[in-house]
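Hi, here's the filled form for the chain we discussed.

Project: internal
Contact: R.S.
Residues: 272
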Amino acid sequence: METGGCRMGTAEPGAPAMITLEDLDGMAEESADSAYHSNGSSPDEEAAERMEDEDQERLLSYWQSVGRGHQVDVPREMAQPIQQLTRNNNPQERQTIPFTLIQRKEKLGDLLYEKRQYGKGKWACIKMKEKQYEQSICLGFMKLMRYICEQNSSGLYLGITIPIVTIVHTDESQSEMRQSVTVAYYLPELLQDEPPHPFDSDIIIEEWPSTIVYSRSFRGITNEDSIMREINLLAEILENPELCLQDTFIIAGYTNPAAANRHNEIWFLQRP
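And the returned structure, exactly as it came back:
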């Protein structure tokens, strides 16, 4: 999941436009230009600080406008993390979580699923239980965003890793999704040995064991209906779905949650 605004299902008529990665890239360029001209051409430090504040307010106002259209409150305390994440929105600097590919299952040239092994690793995790799935992942990621953007014991920007994952639970019959989810951010490799401590007590650093997953890609928004559809589809495709956990799954997000055509994956977890 790349950083961006939050989309709460289908927008109502007249709702603000979605924040896209192109918007963030443009904002980052504008922010850099503002900082360059204020610091490079004006000796007045107060003027530079004023431009910095205006830039921060502009970004926050934009995010709040989108949030209001989708029942998400973006608090003022998000202003600095939003600005920092926007300026650091460089695709080349995003780390992909490492894994070993075990098998690719194809049919008539189409990829049905991949079997992968992820090594043990440390994750920053937060449990959420909002009424709607997308509210949970949006609000959960805002908390993780603050942790990534210096609100940690190192005082440093930690960097983005992809995918951002969400653990979801269903009933045993896989007919209904539970409200409680866990949103998780994989710590970059350089921070795995000594992860910075989060200031937010709701964020817990966990070490996940090595796990074999069966992964299938899908596009579009993620909500209760689309997730249950993808769970049922992968269960039909797998030769032995009973080898996997029957009530716990992972949604992996590789692109901005506000993008119209998101790149997601559903992961089945092989039993230990």
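Let me know if anything looks off before we file it.
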